[in-house]
Automatic annotation (TrEMBL):
Residue ranges of the TM segments: none
Annotated SUPFAM superfamilies: FAD/NAD(P)-binding domain
Protein name: FAD-dependent oxidoreductase
Sequence ranges assigned to domain FAD/NAD(P)-binding in this UniProt record: 17-348
Pro residues bias (residue ranges): 454-464
Keyword Protease carried by entry: no
Organism, as annotated: Microbacterium limosum
InterPro entries found in the cross-reference section: FAD/NAD-bd_sf, FAD/NAD-binding_dom, NDH-2
MF (Gene Ontology): NADH dehydrogenase activity
Biased composition (Basic and acidic residues): 467-479
Family label: Belongs to the NADH dehydrogenase family.
Gene3D superfamilies cross-referenced by the UniProt entry: 3.50.50.100
Superkingdom of the organism of origin: Bacteria
Length: 487
């Protein structure tokens, strides 16, 4: 690593520098709101994220099902953060004692960036366990790339299965296993069931009974965000649709395309989706000198400054899935806000206001947000809704899901693309295009591209027979030897 320090502070008074680590939900909203609340020249905002976009993760199940175009469910940072400097790179270290962050770009050497205020909003990653085969054979659902790859895998498997006679290999290709019965898991499971049913119309060789859907959940229920009664309705509806949830069951292995369960059952499959929990971004947390609690999250105060009631870490802020923010409504798990977008968005907005307040010598406010309830999309026309004691499933819940998320998508530019796409699908049907070859885009070019001919081996003149020098030296003899060598 180079020891270069990126600093523009040469003469006082310097403009305070705010460094936002992660431009996802919480980071994007922090920067977006800061751009609105800060006066011109009041502070410099820099957002660092390895991705040039914020991902609207609640849309990932619908992207996997082909109901939302992948690009529409992300928000380009450079287009919408006009007053911020966007750096497409990773933060790999935070030395808050010296207010220096290590930024590692995809090309070139890492450097150290000075800051006055740091906002850590680096989110969470899929949390897995050391189960044989999972790391190598399963796929998560935290990024747009994973959602697209899941959609394309299922569709490619339909293409392959349609060419096979009934039997174990065809069954394997048409079997989907999802691990984890939280919101994300149930949504992607139900959405893929809906996609598979839609695909069947295009494959006369395959029937509904040829497709197999299994979700594995270690606990005795699914979707802890909704009431038990609502979750049981979801279970019953999934079973009706040929999608089976195995409760109180654990995955023991996923080697050679076989998912082994704690019940002793084995499910052969070509698609294992892992959605069994998340953990605070370990790269950013472990690479920093900020305080961390036992579950690996950054210790955060209700006013979103890093630290505790007793000790404030001056100049450091955190929000979203990477942070342990006390839930002052008393509703959180273990006293902390649960990792969801509802909190991340609102914490990001308040964080911007609080930084602005602190820069102006005012007091920051505490974060208080009472859960709004939950909506889930479970395939076209199917959903689940829960607000307080009111819970139901069906088309109305699905409309609530689409209405809420369509409007919650940041920026009108993005809302219109998503809602426009839904309207198009209503008229034109679901977009069933499989772009799996994007993962190997040069395959046709490579197959037919002209290549230089391989280099010719050097010509070695035949050894001169002893005593026959004169004949072998003749030009015709040398030409004949060359021709023989080049054949
Ligand atoms: C499939 C799915 C469905 C969901 N549905 C819902 C829902 O319906 N309702 C709801 O409330 N919540 C939902 N959630 C949860 C919600 O999306 C998350 O809680 C929310 O995204 C958290 O926001 P965040 O800003 O903390 O993290 P993120 O939005 O994940 O953003 C973190 C950012 O940090 C960046 N980053 C990572 N590493 C680094 C690094 N080293 N340096 C710099 N940047 C880095 C990432 O690229 C990313 O852009 C869902 C999640 C998933 C996966």
């Amino acid at each position: 690593m180079t020891s270069s320090v990126n600093s523009t502070a040469t003469s006082a008074p310097a403009v305070p520098k705010i460094l936002v680590v992660g431009g996802g939900y919480a980071g994007f909203y922090t920067a977006w709101k800061l751009e609105k609340t800060l006066r011109k020249g009041e502070a410099e905002i820099t957002v660092v994220d390895p991705l040039p976009y914020m991902t609207y993760q609640p849309f990932l199940p619908e992207v996997a099902a082909g109901s939302i175009e992948a690009r529409h469910s992300v928000v380009a940072l450079r287009r919408h953060l006009k007053r911020s400097t966007v750096i497409t790179a990773k933060v790999t270290g935070i030395d808050h004692a010296h207010k220096l962050a290590t930024i590692t770009p995809p090309v070139g050497e890492p450097w150290q960036q000075e800051y006055d205020q740091i906002v850590v909003t680096a989110g969470a990653v899929s949390r897995t366990f050391p189960i044989p085969g999972i790391a190598d054979n399963a796929i998560g659902l935290k990024s747009i790339e994973e959602a697209v790859a899941i959609r394309d895998r299922l569709m490619s498997n339909f293409d392959k299965a349609a060419l096979l006679p009934p039997g174990p290999e065809r069954d394997r290709l048409l079997t989907v296993v999802v691990v984890g019965g939280g919101f994300a898991g149930i949504e992607v499971f139900a959405e893929l069931r809906s996609l598979a049913s839609a695909l069947l119309g295009a494959y006369p060789q395959l029937t509904f009974d040829d497709t197999h859907f299994h979700l594995i959940e270690a606990m005795g229920r699914i979707m802890p965000e909704v009431s038990l009664a609502t979750s049981e309705k979801v279970l019953a509806e999934l079973a009706q649709r040929g999608a089976f949830v195995h409760l109180d069951t654990q995955v023991k292995g996923a080697v050679d395309g076989n998912v082994e369960l704690s019940t002793g059952d084995v499910i052969p499959t070509d698609l294992i989706i892992w959605t069994a929990g998340v953990m605070a971004n370990p790269q950013v947390v472990r690479g920093s000198d900020l305080p961390v609690e036992e579950r690996g999250r950054i210790v955060t105060r209700p006013d979103l400054r890093v630290g505790t009631d007793e000790e404030i870490v001056e100049g450091a802020w955190a929000a979203g899935d990477v942070s342990a923010v006390p839930d002052l409504t008393g509703g959180g798990v273990g006293g902390f806000c649960v990792p969801n977008a509802q909190h991340a968005v609102r914490q990001g907005k308040l964080l911007a206001k609080n930084i602005t307040a602190v820069l102006r010598g005012e007091a920051p406010r505490d974060y208080v947000h009472k859960n709004l309830g939950a909506v889930a999309g479970l395939g076209l026309g199917r959903g689940a809704f829960q607000k307080g004691k009111i819970g139901f499933t069906g088309p109305l819940a699905w409309l609530a899901h689409r209405g809420y998320h369509g409007l919650a998508m940041p920026t009108w530019e993005r809302k219109l693309r998503v809602i426009g796409g839904w309207c198009n699908n209503l008229l034109l049907g679901r977009d069933l295009v499989n772009l799996q070859t994007v993962q190997n885009p040069r395959y046709v070019f490579e197959e037919f591209a002209a290549r230089p001919r391989p280099a010719q081996p050097p010509v070695t003149p035949p050894a001169e027979p002893r005593g026959a020098g004169k004949e072998a030296d003749k030009p015709e003899a040398v030409d004949a030897a060359k021709a023989a060598a080049s054949r």
